[in-house]
Amino acid sequence: MMTETNQSMAHPHENTLLEPQVPVVTVKEWIVTLILAAVPLLNIIMLFVWAFSQDSNPNKANLAKASLVLAGIVFSLYFFFSLLILIFSM
Question: What is the pTM of this model?
Answer without folding.
Answer: 0.72
